[in-house]
Write a structure and sequence with these properties.
Length: 485
């Protein structure tokens, strides 16, 4: 086993047509995503253990660590399978056996009977994450003490507190962090990036959504899962467990999206065409189709695009999957060249509109005093450069400046935070400036600002956060002010 290293066994790269995928079908896939306005970050297409195509929308690159959100749950599920293989647990052990110290009252019968396997299948005693039922600073105490609604192991309910509890189980029994245990057992052996990490929730790894890694990391892990734990002839994960994990264990008829109505295994979703998917909020996907030996990894931000998740799936089904051939296909040099050019120029589209307006010169540098309000916007000044603009806003926490590109993106830490962000703006009409800021680090989401300048010297700001921005509620506002004379 010591001979197994990432350097010794890298994933090979082949032209897509060698594996039955035409360049034209990949182009049609990208066209569908673009026409639907999906904010893509990356994609990686794998078939027959080989990378066929990949692309990254600037500012994202192949080296970018991206928040994978609920994809993390599958990593937790794999770690639990390793615990069982190592003899720490049996899947049908009552989960409470390992967490007696988290009980604050006599547990109910349903809580006492809930097993590790129940938690893996999202068949806990709760209808949703325990802290959403009763707020509590300690997720584990909430999970074991919130009054259950039903018997465990019976029906599916998406319960992130179950995943976090399973992550805590791994850490309690191994004395290692979730990532350190997985690195020792498997991740280092498949070439997972050294920089990848998992955020904490309190003193426990956030097994519900804290993983940050690269698209390649996710692709390798998905391939390992699809091969039921085998990696270049080495069995890194328990095969029988992975067979159970990657097949339907429970129905998911009440799922929110078309793509996840096919059932659930152990911390992963089933999908169409007898596949399974590692799914994270906002379009973090690893769609695994064992019968076709095909994987599509995507990272994206669909949080302000209703139906965007289903768009990614349907675009894939209708193009690459539909046109798949079992053998190699004839090389279309024109399509291959077009795909190369498209991939080379991928970038998150800046806000569409005009980069200048006659009113810009009238309001540039002027301070607007906003009506008395509880938002972050109290005094606001707008400035413009040749290809960028600035919004300076003062409040009780001080003065802050948001820089935005005109026809491009300006990268920065979002004002008053250490959150990585990229902002773009454009004039959507002569009096209205629209600015969208995407968060590109540990948070996924966007802040959208609409600034309307009236002929009476007024400025109305409408501000809406989307997704997991980490911003205070005071950014969700609509307020008017006037030029201060």
């Amino acid at each position: 086993m010591s001979l197994l290293t990432a350097e010794k066994f890298p994933l090979p790269v082949y032209p897509p047509n060698h594996m039955g995928v035409s360049s034209a079908s990949i182009l049609r896939f990208l066209d569908r995503l673009e026409s639907a306005g999906i904010c893509m970050h990356s994609y990686v297409l794998i078939r027959n253990h080989s990378i066929l195509s990949e692309g990254y929308w600037a500012p994202y690159t192949a080296e970018s660590l991206q928040r994978m959100y609920s994809v993390t749950k599958t990593f937790v599920g794999v770690a639990v399978g390793l615990l069982a293989q190592d003899g720490y647990i049996h899947l049908d052990d009552p989960l409470i056996t390992y967490f007696r110290d988290k009980m604050t009252k006599q547990p109910s019968r349903y809580t006492q009977e809930m097993t590790i396997r129940d938690a893996l299948m999202m068949c806990s005693v709760h209808t949703k994450t325990a802290t959403q039922i009763v707020p509590h600073p300690d997720m584990l105490k909430a999970f074991f003490n919130v009054t259950p609604s039903h018997k465990a192991g019976t029906v599916f309910n998406y319960d992130t507190s179950a995943s976090i509890t399973l992550a805590a189980l791994v850490e309690r029994l191994t004395g290692m962090s979730l990532m350190d245990y997985l690195r020792m057992k498997v991740l280092d052996k498949i070439g997972f990036s050294n920089e990848a990490y998992c955020l904490k929730r309190g003193d426990v790894s956030d097994g519900g959504g804290g993983l940050l890694c690269t698209a390649h990391d996710l692709a390798k892990f998905a391939l390992l899962c699809m091969q039921q734990g085998s990696w270049y002839g080495f069995q890194l994960l328990p095969k029988d467990y992975m067979k159970l994990a990657t097949t339907r264990r429970v129905a998911t008829n009440f799922a929110n999206y078309q793509f996840n109505s096919y059932g659930y295994g152990y911390q992963m979703w089933m999908t169409a065409h007898n596949g399974f998917v590692l799914y994270g909020m906002g379009g973090q996907f690893a769609i695994c189709l064992p019968e076709k030996n095909l994987i599509l990894v995507t990272t994206a931000d669909t949080l302000d695009n209703q139906g965007g998740l289903d768009v990614i799936f349907n675009s894939f089904w209708d193009t690459i999957y539909k046109e798949l051939d079992e053998e190699s296909v004839e090389d279309d040099e024109e399509a291959a060249e077009a795909l190369y050019e498209r991939i080379s120029g991928l970038k998150i589209r800046p806000v569409e509109g005009e980069t200048d307006s006659p009113i810009a010169r009238a309001i540039g540098g002027k301070c607007f005093t906003m009506d008395t309000n509880t938002s972050v916007f109290q005094n606001v000044t707008i400035g413009f450069g040749p290809d960028y603009g600035t919004v300076t806003f003062d409040n009780d926490q001080g003065s802050h400046e948001l820089r935005f590109g005109l026809g491009n993106y300006a990268r920065q830490f979002f004002p008053g935070t250490r959150m990585e962000a990229a902002a773009s703006g454009a004039w959507v009409d002569p009096e209205t400036l629209f600015i969208r800021t995407y968060f590109t680090g540990e948070n996924l989401g966007s802040l959208q600002l609409l600034l309307h300048f009236g002929g009476d010297g007024s400025l109305t700001i409408q501000s809406r956060p989307f997704g997991d921005t980490g911003l205070p509620a005071s950014y969700n506002t609509c307020v008017t002010g006037f030029v201060y004379e």
